[in-house]
Specification:
Elements (H helix, E strand, L loop, with lengths): L1 H4 L8 H15 L2 H10 L5 H23 L5 E3 L3 H10 L6 H20 L2 H8 L2 H22 L3 E2 L7 E2 L7 H18 L5 H16 L30 H29 L11 H18 L4 E3 L3 H6 L5 H14 L3 H4 L4 H16 L10 H17 L2 H18 L8 H19 L1
Antiparallel strand pairs: 1-4, 2-3
Length: 434
Amino acid sequence: MENFFKLKERGTTVGKEVIAGITTFLAMAYILAVNPGILSASGMDFGSVFTATAVASAIATLVMAFAANLPVALAPGMGLNAFFTYTVVLGMGCSWQFALTAVLLEGILFIILSLVGVREAIIKSIPASLRKAVAVGIGLFITLIGLANAGIVSSETGTIIGFVNLNLQNSAALVAVLGLIITIILYVLKVPGSVLIGIAITTIIGIPFGVTSVPENFKAVSLPAAPYFFEFEWSNVLTMKFFIVFFTFLFTDMFDTIGTLMGVTEQAGLTDKNGDIPNAKGALFADAVGTVVGSIFGTSTVTSFVESSAGVASGGRTGLSSVVTSIFFLLALFLSPLFALVPSAATAPALIFVGFLMIKSVAGIDFSDVTEGIPAFITIMVMPFSYSIAKGISWGIIAYVICKVAGKKAKDIPVVTWILAAIFLFDIIFEAVK
């Protein structure tokens, strides 16, 4: 175990990795309820999608552990599942089988691109300042997710966004703030597993507030529902509609994954002196395999989860933590009622606190050079405000090219970066005229 995962080399222990793996799972366990909820609106069975979500997440995360040795967990991506249901099925009138077919072919193409190094080359083409900006942007993005999940922020406060009153009418928000205070105190006191302990204590605190719901005749163990299997629709794969759906899944997944990997590895201190991700090819391969497996069993695109940063905050540095997370996804198949007890208000403090840990990368950005600082700012700003990692990367790269050209430093722009900027600009124009 030591030789394979390189625990000593990365300054970690088995105990830290176990705690990190559990923390990551608890931080992203909401996907086991949210993903089936979203996809069931497309006509799919909730129980079958729950099983597919757990199985696909477990397999993809296990591949990440052994192919890349990184503390990154994977699951069906938020945003992509909403696109699956509300745009492709309900908006465009397609069947969910049609959407699954697009996800399958996207995953197969991703496997090919990962094996030949195309996706890895794209990562290396992103300038160092933007890589650090991606980590900061994800930190703010995941903080916003935590605040929103707990109901701490709302658009119903009379402004575009604002904090709600912390009273019993907003009990989830109140419990989450108490949980954040507990997590901060534990972390400052250097208590091992402070984030995980914070989640557990917050879950217990939520019981008298009615935030943590314990049902009558509670049974922790239940048998999983049968997933779908090879439910695809091939009759429309040569249509323009399929082409649009396919490439939307493709590009959104690609840059969400790239952004997450850069952010999490930067936070964990795993990048090399050039800022490159170790075993990037294996990490991207895991993402692609997860997408293919997920489509076969009946769920939307699988991608690397930013909530992995919660595990990194608990000390996760190797693929061993991913193994633990994978095991818990498999356990969730039989213990879904138990894991369902943990409310969003209990995981929200972990996500909010991770924002602090990730924003520290801003110190490595040279804002005195405006051709580096402005694109970094655009990247950081767009991610939380657009609610999209992919958009943050695309707008940041476009801004990078514009600033370098305006600053007469066009020679600093790699060829691949030029190509990416052109693709992103075309995508923005296409969306505008669509």
